Amino acid sequence: MQWPSWWRAAFGKRGRRARRSDPIRPRRSLGMTAALAAVLCGLGAFTLWGTLQATRATEAQSRALVLDAIFSEASSAVAVQEMQARHYQLEPSVASRERYLDSAAQADAALRRAVELSTGAAQQDALRLQAEQSAYRQAADQLIVMVTDRNPDAVKQDRLEVTPAYYTLQHDITEVSRSYHALAQKRVAELRSVQTRMFAATMLGFAIGLALVAAIWRVMLAYQRRVLEHARASQRQALHDPLTGLANRLLFQQRLDDAIEAAGPGSDRQPAVMLIDMNGFKAVNDTLGHHAGDEVLVQTGNRLGKVCGEGDTVARLGGDEFAVLLRSVSSVEAALEIAERAGGALRRNFQLPVGSAAVSGSVGMALGAPGCSAEDMLRHADAAMYRAKSSGKGVALYDPEVDIDQPGRMALFADLRTLLTEGDPDAQLVLYYQPQVRIADATVPAVEALVRWRHPQLGLLAPDAFLGVAETGGLEIPLTYHLLRIAVAEAAGWHAQGRPLTVSVNVSPNCLLDEAFVGQVRAALADTGLPSHLLRLEITESGMTTDPDRAQEVLRRIRHDGVQVSIDDFGTGFSSLNQLKLLTADELKIDRIFIQELATDPGDAILVRSAIELAHNLGLFVTAEGVEDLTALNMLAELGCDQVQGFALSRPVPADVLRAECAKAEQIARAALKPARGTMTTTEFGAKV
């Protein structure tokens, strides 16, 4: 037996498999609903048609039965009329004659009703029978008269006219009555057939409708299950990190609030919070790729989970920052023991498919205290974590005597975000400039812009106090654009005053991946009118390894506009010489770690000389930063370095005293520099720039 396709789809195994994999189930449900509506409409229409047919059959049956009864009555009346006529022939009397006349009147009345109540062919039959009745009665009346008069021709009259007329009338009435009786029976059979078909169709329609309702109900139940599953998945996604499956910041905050409330005042057990920041994680992303970085994050969550006990929570707050909630600890020693285990677990090398990664974690811990909120605990743990990172010890417990003066990172982040999103009306973010001295002629052709924050409550903050907050909070790109506009505007003012200086601006590596970066640089130059060659953008060497192709394309576009590009912190990144060869740049800056011990470490001197020669061979001029003594200045001149900056010449200063500071730096350089062998002349340097 071949089942309909909708039946197989709703109840068959094939239909069940199809429904699980069918991506357009709502369409199927709509189709079944339409089919059910069609079945119900069809069933209603058929029921209406059947009712009309039954009504018509009933009316036809009723008419046929009425006509059958009338013609039967007329047949009986004619028979009685004939009997009374024969009786009068045998016993002529007034009573017999009256009975004859009564029966004749009844026969006439019956046929008259038949004529009145019938239509069409039935009426024609009634008129014909009425005419025959009239002829018969006329002959019978004449016979009665002849019998009364004792006319000898009465017998002849009876034989020739009355008897033939009677038999003709009786035969026709009987045939007509029989035909309408048969018609009534036929109408009864038709009515029964209509009723049977209606019953069968109703049952079939009910069965089909029930099947469709069941199918639709099944689809709706499946849809409801999917909605519930989607709601559960959405709730989990809203409260869990998609990469590691750990709790996210929102869920961690909720559980921390619950733990603080559950501890209550006077309890001998309190919650504790650990904040963990990964050390060396960026190098994994840069050297091994982001997939390796993701694997490190997953393994970090697993390792922290093994350190914790039942009921504790491990969360990923964002980036490479994790948090652990110890729901109930009995003592400081117990909490520190868990923190040490967590730090030790993270110090083990991470075995990845692409190789081994040496990553560690800095752990900051804070314990709950009476009146301490969840926000307070997180802020304390954050302060302890940064102390652990800066001290290199790996683990630190919040100490109010030590950490009280450290600015809260959360508050700093909120203030910085407000400055960048709502504007900086009080000019809290300012730039200090450090002169860069050209060795060839002991002049200052350029300065490096370095940010400071004049915080209303905390005073003047150095970059180390808030740049990490900006980076972890995702504010490094808007901060870079904000400082770029300040630097370009001030450099344009110096140019208008007839003292042009090239301004170097540090650019976050993520800016090279931002689609708006080139447009921001062009807009800053166009708005201020600063010639493009007086702007130099400093890109860290390691920042070039995240997406080298994208970075090189962006730098080519920048340099095509005339903007200079500098490779900052050379020697501290993980880029290869091949990548350095492909870089589109003008300047190479040697990091301060190679300059600070240049006079005492022969190895540093060899590395610096090699870096200078490599840069010159690649067509780059070289700037050494971190020059803190004049001996290093003279050695750099002998090694062929082109440009220097450092505390030995000048510290970073505000823009309003920069001109005087540049003159001071030039004076110190002229007095300290010995004739440098092998260095470029002023003309050669200018041509290269």
Can you characterise this structure?
With 689 residues, the chain is of the alpha/beta class. It has 22 helices and 17 strands. It folds into 3 domains: 13-222, Four Helix Bundle (Hemerythrin (Met), subunit A) (Up-down Bundle), CATH 1.20.120.1730; 249-406, Alpha-Beta Plaits (2-Layer Sandwich), CATH 3.30.70; 421-688, EAL domain (TIM Barrel, Alpha-Beta Barrel), CATH 3.20.20.450. It has helices at 5-11, 13-21, 25-90, 94-117, 120-148, 154-239, 249-263, 281-288, 290-307, 332-347, 374-391, 400-403, 409-422, 467-472, 476-496, 517-528, 548-560, 577-582, 602-617, 630-638, 658-672, 682-688; strands at residues 270-279, 313-318, 321-329, 350-352, 355-357, 360-367, 395-397, 429-438, 443-455, 459-461, 502-507, 535-540, 564-570, 587-590, 621-625, 643-645, 653-654. β14, α19 and β15 form a beta-alpha-beta unit. α3 (25-90) runs parallel beside α5 (120-148) and α8 packs antiparallel against α9 (290-307). The protein is rod-shaped, with a radius of gyration of 56 Å. The two termini are 90 Å apart.
